[in-house]
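ok so i was messing around last nite and threw this chain in just to see what happens. nothing serious, just curious
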Amino acid sequence: MDHVCDWCGSRAKKGENIVYWELPDGTRAIEITETPAVICSDCDMIYQTEEITKEIEDQLFLIDTKKIGKTISYQELMALPRLLKRNYFDFS
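result:
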């Protein structure tokens, strides 16, 4: 499925990339592989949608981050059991 690039407005494609994310407690950053991304060949931007960013941030807030090593795949991260059912501090 094609997307419109948020940066230049050209057609972009779905893909994956590696992202680095600071844990909510600020103690360290982790590498998240195979993260869904939007890839634009016109302006060379590779980025995560707001939905993916929110999913990652919510998941990191709701799990025991001590169980994550330096690197984890997006699918493995999203499959980790949550301590709470949802982010009760998100008022958006």
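not much to say yet. Residues 62 and 78 are 11 Å apart (CA to CA).
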